[in-house]
Amino acid sequence: MIKIAILGAGAMGSLFGARLAEAGHAVTLLDINDAHLDAIRRFGLRLQTDEADRRVHGMRALRPEQADAIPELLIVFTKSMHTRAAMAGVRHLLGPDTTVLSLQNGLGSVDAICEFVPAQRLLIGVTTWPADLVGPGHVHSHGEGGIRMMSADGVDRPAVAGTVAALERAGLHCTADADVWAAIWEKVAFNAALNPLCAVTGSTVDQLGNIPDGTALALAVVAEVLAVARSQGVAVDAGKVGANVLHAIGHHIGHKPSMLQDILAARRTEIDAINGAVVAAARRSGVPVPCTESLLQLVRLIEARAANGGQGASPLQAH
Questions:
Q1: For 36-58, how does the pLDDT look when each residue is reduced to its tens digit (9 = 90+)?
Q2: Intervals of CATH 1.10.1040.10 along the chain
Q3: Where is the Ketopantoate reductase N-terminal domain (predicted)?
Q4: Ramachandran bin of 202, using left for φ above 0, alpha for ψ from -120 to 50, beta for the remaining angles
Q5: Which of 47, 150, 212, 270 has a CB 3.0–4.6 Å from the CB of 180, allowing a cystine?
């Protein structure tokens, strides 16, 4: 058993926290969603997966400023644009031996976290697990996923094996991967395709496959993003990413990606850390990314409408 804190206990953070708690680890969920935290404290976390519908008890659910126990492992699941502020809010929990694992979407969080912990104590990676926050204290996840991770400086330290073992014990299918930056760019390509496409159309992931155009557009975005990655010297696997996209469309039934959930709730999305970061890198490298840039512009338009008092929901409502 190890002491684990989850920074950002939304859908993904709650899923990971619950699975780790079920595996016997001491888990603390840290978030600022008071209704969600209160529901977990009172009733436990209701977790619906393909295996079962159950309530997971025994996790502490706190606002960051209420926590005082220094964790051995801090897993960061906040949105990319909130990373720096979130890490500043848990500075008092970062002990000299605390390992930080970032499984966040997009690009840019590594530099922000390294302002608070040295690269030797930072693990970075990606996960393909799907999760939806149904309501306060209620998460569901249907379909399989996995995790690829490594230390930020590329050194295979004992903390890597220990973290892999903890996540594996929780059934989260984790592997250490020396090519973690390829994994990160491949996940960026996956997210740059599916997240904004769902956000602007109001479709769940599986609904993108209702007509061939949806799948074709998703794969076109993947090809653009991976071209940018190669221009940065990262060896990415186009076949693997394409297969992951097709699998998600075929099997992540009813899943609303976080970007669609944010649009429906009139919240700011991670579009700038995903498509925005890709477009910026593409401009520096001279790589054309018309589909990726169009989706960036469309999501920004929807965000601007919400910011100016319009409804936050996307043009086509998700069912």
A1: 999 999 999 999 999 999 999 99
A2: 181-307
A3: 4-149
A4: left
A5: 150
Q: Which of 267, 268, 224, 262 is nearest to 242 (CA)?
A: 224
Calculate the CA 152 to chain-centre distance: 17
Judging by beta carbons within 10 Å of its beta carbon (0-12, 13-18, 19+), is residue 17 exposed, middle or buried? buried
Predicted TM-score (pTM) of the model is 0.85
CATH superfamily of 181-307: N-(1-d-carboxylethyl)-l-norvaline Dehydrogenase; domain 2 (1.10.1040.10)
Q: Could you tell me if residue 10 is left (phi over 0), alpha (psi between -120 and 50 degrees) or otherwise beta?
A: beta
Burial of 18 (0-12, 13-18, 19+ CB in 10 A): buried
Structure tokens at 59: 């996790």
Quote the Cα angle for 256-261-266, to 5°: 155
Q: Where in the chain is the domain with CATH 3.40.50.720?
A: 3-178
How far is the C-alpha of 192 from the C-alpha of 227, rounded, in Å?
Answer: 13
Closest by Cα among 203, 185, 184 to 248:
203
Provide the 8-state DSSP code for 102.
E
Residue type, 48: Q
Token reading at 91: 């500075």
Residues 261 and 133: beta-carbon distance below 8 Å:
yes
Helix, strand or coil, per DSSP, at residue 244: helix
Distance of alpha carbon 212 from alpha carbon 104, whole angstroms: 30
Query: What confidence tier does 310 reach under pLDDT thresholds 50, 70, 90?
Result: low
We find that the CATH architecture of domain 3-178 is: 3-Layer(aba) Sandwich (3.40)
